[in-house]
Here is the input.
Amino acid sequence: MHLTPAAVLLLAGMLVPVQGAHAQADGCTVTAQDLTLGRYDPLSNLPQDAVSSISVQCSVATPFVVTLGPGNGTYAARTMIGGNQALRYNLFLDPTHMTVWGDGSNGSSSFGQDTTGGVFPVYAHAPGGQSLLRPGTYVDIVTITLSY
Here is the structure.
């Protein structure tokens, strides 16, 4: 049994200029590439991993912070919804899946730099063994906030 592709990071971007922040910055933009976990096999104990990216572009070198919202779940346990079922997954700052990308609360971490921007990877991980899931499409929408 396989589930149809699961999509995450159908992200809504939000820009939040911080008062007193870098006075020279005309502005910054944030864009995200949709993230798809692919076909998840609920009968397998193997996890499903995927990588996407978030791009930040500022007119001049600017201190900025990128945070991700919890989507349908919490920072400890994000979920993709498919009908009345939920596929557990999470988003991470690192490929070892140790640092949850969030807003700095509830054990999550945010990401910040002082540059003109760049392309930053987002690592997704869905644990294996979610055997009660039925076939279908599972989706979550996670909000990106760029503060500068």
Q: What stands out?
A: The chain has no helices and nine strands. The beta strands are 6-8, 12-16, 28-32, 35-38, 48-68, 78-82, 85-92, 111-126, 143-147. Confidence is low (pLDDT under 50) at residues 1-24.
